[in-house]
Amino acid sequence: MSDITDEITVTRNEGEGRYEIRVGDDLAGFTEFVTTRDGKLVFPHTLIDPAFEGRGLATRLVAAAMTDVAAQGGTVVPLCPVVAHYLRKYEVPGLTVEFRGDAS
Hints:
By secondary structure, the protein is an alpha/beta fold. It has helices at about 55-70, 80-90, and strands spanning about 10-15, 20-25, 25-35, 40-50, 75-80, 95. The longest helix has 15 residues, at about 55-70.
């Protein structure tokens, strides 16, 4: 199990369709995305392993993922409540967001 002092990294795993957050060498969680025909990224689900809860990793994961999408000039459709909450609370420069349905 990783220690609280281990390095935290977020990477885009294109093959799995998700951004992953690692604590040291351990996969601590991920936020999934699906690319639509018109190039938008739909984020339906975010999961943090219960062993890593309470460390703010979901926020760090979503922040890094949204910053990466913004750097690519992308558009996000946040269906996941965690992603939607983050995007309602924080401005991500350069990111286009399309809220749909009742994600909150």
